[in-house]
Backbone:
């Protein structure tokens, strides 16, 4: 017994071919989106990081490679589509179609596995980024590499600290070699044994702030009272949001996009497989029935697939549809013959009236017009007699359908 069997005409098979082709193009575009999003993270986001660059690059190189697999696989699918519609009778088409379907299923399964673990990878990347920024802030004045990295991150992303600007007030990035611990300004802001002061780097400053940026009360001694009297102005002059959100936002977006695209690829793969099977089997069966332009059954799985020999033969499957078509033709023929008999006299009268009306100004032609109308009536009666004399049998109609 065939699974998911439908009978298609040649016109319907052409529509399946077009749908198959369009879905392949959509899959290629999805693969391009997957690859380009991965490249964006590698090129635009990864260079900002330092210690986690290798991990982020590895994760998105994997997703980018699977995107290229999707592109390549469904480019081949366009060729398979042409073969299923135009060369379904060849054994090579059957082998290529089977191999292509298996490779596509393997690609989709791998994408589902990577998509499942991408959430965990995202959490691990977030923890690594947080540790990396914290390390960079601690060594901000110790190593020039970290200073350059943090300044570039904060300036380009308009952020400050990890989660907020207050992280600079909590992390010990200033030492006794950078500030005079005995000065009055330090004693005024220094409240514990740890040297944590309300100082932020210049890269935390807002570019569009109309006044002087208030980021360091130790150096900006004349404005030191602003930290106590006008704290709102101090906060308005610097970026208060943390850099963690700025870094995580594109990565989270790309991970979510990867999961969404994987889901779409999986759904479209199932639809493409069903449509391609219908197209291939119907085209092949039409050739086996020696009627490539006629009706033929198509199925997902049926007789002749993978050595399966059960179920009805093609002749048995097509016997019922052809019988139905013949019955419809017989009914239509009888209706046409009946309507033709009743309408013939009326048609003669209408011809006479029309011609007499159009040529009433010329009485000499009326006799000629009457003879022409009578001649038309006789020819119609003769054709009806011939139609009624021809026996319409099942064998003749089947022979017409096969031709």
Residues:
């Amino acid at each position: 017994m065939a699974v998911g069997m439908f009978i298609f005409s040649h016109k319907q098979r052409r529509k399946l071919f077009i749908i198959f082709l369009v879905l392949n193009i959509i899959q290629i575009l999805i693969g391009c989106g997957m690859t380009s999003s991965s490249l964006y993270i590698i090129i635009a986001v990864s260079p900002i990081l330092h210690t986690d660059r290798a991990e982020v690059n590895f994760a998105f190189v994997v997703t980018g490679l699977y995107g290229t697999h999707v592109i390549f696989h469904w480019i081949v699918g366009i060729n398979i589509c042409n073969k299923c519609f135009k060369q379904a009778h060849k054994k090579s088409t059957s082998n290529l179609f089977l191999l292509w379907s298996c490779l596509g299923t393997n690609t989709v399964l791998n994408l589902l596995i990577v998509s499942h673990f991408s959430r965990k990878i995202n959490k691990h990347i977030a923890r690594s980024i947080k540790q990396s920024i914290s390390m960079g802030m601690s060594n901000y004045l110790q190593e020039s590499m970290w200073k350059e990295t943090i300044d570039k991150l904060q300036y380009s992303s308009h952020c400050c600290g990890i989660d907020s600007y207050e992280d600079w007030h909590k992390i010990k990035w200033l030492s006794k070699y950078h500030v005079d611990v005995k000065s009055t300004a330090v004693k005024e802001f220094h409240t514990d044994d740890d040297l944590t002061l309300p100082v932020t780097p210049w890269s935390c400053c807002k570019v569009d702030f109309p006044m002087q940026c208030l980021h360091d009360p130790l150096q900006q001694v004349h404005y030191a009272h602003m930290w106590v009297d006008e704290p709102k102005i101090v906060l308005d002059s610097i970026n208060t949001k943390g850099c963690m959100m700025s870094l995580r936002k594109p990565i989270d977006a790309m991970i979510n996009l990867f999961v969404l695209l994987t889901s779409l690829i999986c759904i479209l793969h199932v639809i493409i497989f069903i449509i391609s099977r219908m197209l291939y089997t119907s085209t092949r069966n039409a050739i086996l029935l020696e009627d490539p332009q006629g009706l033929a059954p198509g199925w997902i799985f049926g007789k002749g697939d993978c050595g399966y020999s059960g179920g009805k033969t093609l002749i048995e499957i097509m016997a019922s549809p052809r019988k139905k078509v013949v019955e419809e033709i017989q009914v239509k023929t009888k209706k046409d013959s009946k309507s033709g008999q009743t309408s013939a006299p009326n048609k003669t009268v209408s011809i006479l009236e029309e011609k007499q009306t159009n040529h009433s100004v010329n009485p000499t032609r009326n006799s000629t017009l009457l003879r022409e109308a009578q001649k038309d009536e006789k020819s119609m009666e003769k054709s009806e007699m011939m139609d009624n004399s021809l026996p319409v049998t099942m064998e003749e109609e089947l022979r017409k359908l096969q031709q």
